[in-house]
Amino acid sequence: MHPTSGGKAERPPKKRYSETSQESFTFFSLGTNGGPLESDCSAHLLSDGRFQEIISIDGGGHLSALAELIERKQLTVDVEERDSQVATKGISQDNVYAKAWLFSEQRIKTFLISHCHFDHIYGCVINSAMFGPQNPRTIVGLDYVINTLKKHVFNNQVWPALDKAGFINFKIIDETMYTNITSSLSILPFPVNHGSSFGHELKSSAFFIRNGLTDRYFLAFGDVEPDKVASDPLNIYIWKMCANLIAKKKLTHILIECSTPDIPDPLLFGHFCPRHLVEELCSLQSLVIGLGGNMDNITVLITHLKSHPLQTIDPAAVIMEQLEALSKQFSLSVTFKIVQRGQFYRFS
């Protein structure tokens, strides 16, 4: 597996990536689509610079996405290096399914779930039968996420209660403190709004991820509703903490959704579009400036774009055009990048 430097998304270089990298974070996306394609659902791999202990931020895709990206050589996994017994078992070096299986089994121990919509949990659920008591995975989230998974998914009706068999462990994380997830990364969750559905208010999550070795931070959102639309604004609390970290030059990258080009608020259904994203980032920028900092080095990674086979325009191109035009209009000083599936980003 080969990350690139400077937060740029590029094809992996031929030279093997050094496991002594000083970068704080390695980010690799398995799925960026907000629907309806089930083959490209939300799942992002995050680790420190070594890319050894990996957290899956959401789990809409997993094993099949790993296999596809290995087959396309966007993720390099040496089977003999990963498991010395593979060669003696007669497994072909071209068996991408085996490579994906081993990569997941040995490096991706944790799924950090923002909310329980299927485009964010599908891969984690369907692949959980492969985990097994010898290599269980931990599913991490806020209390309402874990309780929903246990009650409505892993309930022996929708899907087997694999926690009872030791295939998975559920872990509720505290909103008031960082929880260690790997040897270098810890998580602080925040609840966010995700609109309403037939009168029921939905909640999602955002996560501050801290590299304890470098004291650098990354902010990742699940699906999220703009504060201007929400009945109980919650994003502002995240922006206040984020502003402090930016002003101290401890955070440079934010992962957030922008599902569609600008559309009327009643059609958002708990998501961001460019005008709302820019408005919220302008609020963040005002807080940062108030603390004596600036947003010049901030990269906003855009994900969760919704697709439609009959669209005559590229939604990604329209979203980027609108984001850049609005940023210029309101003097927002950030760089936008639309996350590319199967490409590495490395940053401090």
UniProtKB/TrEMBL annotation:
Positions of the UniProt region annotated as Disordered: 1-22
Feature: compositional bias, Basic and acidic residues: 8-18
Gene Ontology molecular function terms on file: 3',5'-cyclic-AMP phosphodiesterase activity; 3',5'-cyclic-GMP phosphodiesterase activity
One Pfam family per UniProt: PDEase_II
Keywords: cAMP, Hydrolase
Keyword Hydrolase: yes
GO BP terms: cAMP catabolic process; negative regulation of adenylate cyclase-activating glucose-activated G protein-coupled receptor signaling pathway; negative regulation of meiotic cell cycle
Family: Belongs to the cyclic nucleotide phosphodiesterase class-II family.
Cited PANTHER family: 3',5'-CYCLIC-NUCLEOTIDE PHOSPHODIESTERASE 1
Name the record gives this protein: cAMP-specific phosphodiesterase Cgs2
Species of origin: Schizosaccharomyces cryophilus (strain OY26 / ATCC MYA-4695 / CBS 11777 / NBRC 106824 / NRRL Y48691)
